[in-house]
Every structure is written in C-alpha cells, then in structure tokens.
Amino acid sequence: MMDARKITVIGSGNVGCAISADLTLAGHEVCLYEMPQFKESLVPILKHGGIELLGVARTGFARLSKITTEIEAAIRGAEVIMIATVALAHETIAELCAPYLEDGQTIVLFPGNLGSLVFVKVLKEKAADKHIKIVEAVSAPYGCRRVAGQAEVNVRSFLKLNAAAFPAKDTNRAIDDLKDFYPDAFLPGRNVLEVSLSNPNILLHVGPCILNTGWIEATGGEFAFYRQGMSPSVLRIMEAMWHEKNAIFEVLGLTDHYPFDAIKRMITDPQVQLLQGATDMRHRFITEDCPMGMVSTASLGDMIGVPTPIFKALITLASEINGTDYFKEGRTMERLGISGLSRDELGKFLAEGHPQ
Length: 356
Description:
globular, N-(1-d-carboxylethyl)-l-norvaline Dehydrogenase, domain 2, Rossmann fold, alpha/beta, four-stranded mixed sheet, 356 residues, 16% strand
C-alpha cells in the first residue's frame, strides 16, 4: 500500500468525480472543489458524503475527505491539485488559486490545452514567490460519465496519455510523482506544446461539426457522429488539417502523438461509433475546442511562419455560426505571453522556463 497523499480535485464534472472517487478508494485523502456558481453540481455529492464509482475502475462508495466551494480551504495543505475543468476555465481557476498556493505544490491539468502557460502567466503576476510545479496531459486518464444529477460516475476505460511539465526539464520527475496515482498512465512528451497540440479533439470536433451543421441542427445531434458524420469528404478535410498541424510540428522538431492514421483507427472503433456528437452548434466540441485548440494551432503557425488556411477557414465559419470572434477570444500566443519568440527562443522557453 502506497503512502496516502493529500489531493485537491477542482471540478465536479465527469472527470473530476472519477478522479475523486478512484483516488479516494486507492487510499488517498481527497478534497473535491467546485466554483460557487456551479455549487448545484455538488448537492447530491454533499447529500451522500461522497461518490459511487462504477465500471472498470475501483468500484464502491468513496467517502471524500472534504467537499467545498471555498477555494482557500480546498487548496490549503494539498500536495497535488488536479484540475478537471474545461480549458475555458483555466484562467479563472488560476486567479482563484494564486493567493492560496503553497511552496512545493503540484498542479496537474486534465486536459492541458496549454493551460500550463496560462497558469505560468497568472502566477508570475500574482504568486511569483511560490515554487509550484505544473504538469499538463493531452486528456484525462479516464473515459467516464457522471450520471446526471447523481453522486455516481461510471468509468468505461483507462487511457494512456502523453504529459509534460513546464518547464520540460521537470517532466520525468513530474511523471514519476504521478505514478503514486497512475502507475502506467503517462508517457513523457517533449514539452507542453507537443502535448497540447497532439490532442485529437483538434481534428475530431470542430471541422466535422461545421461540415455536419445541417445534421446537427436538424436532429439535435441524434445521429451517429463518428459513423455517419465522418464521410470521405469530411475525412479529407481532417487530413488536410492534420498536414497543416504536422507542418508546424516538423518546424519545431515535435512529434504528433496522434497521427492521422491513428485518428482514423479511433473513428472506426465500434464503441466510438456509437457515441453521439454535438447536440447543437454551441456544444463544447465547438465552443471549447475551437478557441482552445484550433486557434492555438493557427496562432502558433502565424508566429513561426507556417500557413494554416484550412484551420482559419473553419475558425471563421465557427465564429460566424456562433456570433463569436474565436480568433479574438481564443488561446493565442499573444494571450499566452509568448508571441514574438523565435523558434529557438520558444524551444528554450518551453524546456528551461526562460527564452534565453
């Protein structure tokens, strides 16, 4: 039996509940935090004092050590803070956490979407005296669903994922530390940029949603998105997107951990083909993956001189459909505080934490 660790999980959605229950059943002391505006999500968990875990993970009732909407109480004394929110919330979470962080704590983002750089920027301004380790993974280690309105989550699968620390020189040490919770889940990526832009959702979600707008709006998403929606023409657009992204990777000496052949195999998996897609055009497949993945890719391409016309066309269409300027609101290199770096400076910054 490993030593018990003190963990705070931020976010009470599918992944946050799975982490909280699974690691509690593994013998760790887990606090689950949710932002006050989403406190209704905690009501059934507070009523029962914990979460029922089903599926392929550890199963049973997990009585959590603390369930709270008070960020200071959640952060105090935690060794590891696991953030399981949408990427859109990263800046807000960083601002909330900054005053209460303690030296030696580790922040882990599931998924990352370059959220590590968001945290670095906020902490530089608000907690520069604190020594905090930051790690991000391409996704979360669970394929899971929380039962709506219940203190119950079903884990359908465990995933092997790439992860990296910022700076990358700390990656191996960070992954070794995470082995206390997930012995075999994480493989080291070259840096957080490689990990973030390897996220297959960048290709799987926005483009196919835009190209299936009629289906989505006519049926409310009641069609087999990954079977019926991935027609040969849609796959050609996705492959063109992958080539644009891979051109960026080649310039920066990075490796895409989900090459297009792997994505095509993923789509043909019988279990994946049963999954429903977006239910409307304001689904998170667009409202998160466009500004947090597509825009980051196109912005990085602009910075290093790699054209991304297919990405930009799809971002433009998504912006028009939703009446939102995703180019302006998205996670650009400028908003991350790294615009203007040369390729060498960018590599040095990601590896060492400073550009020179």
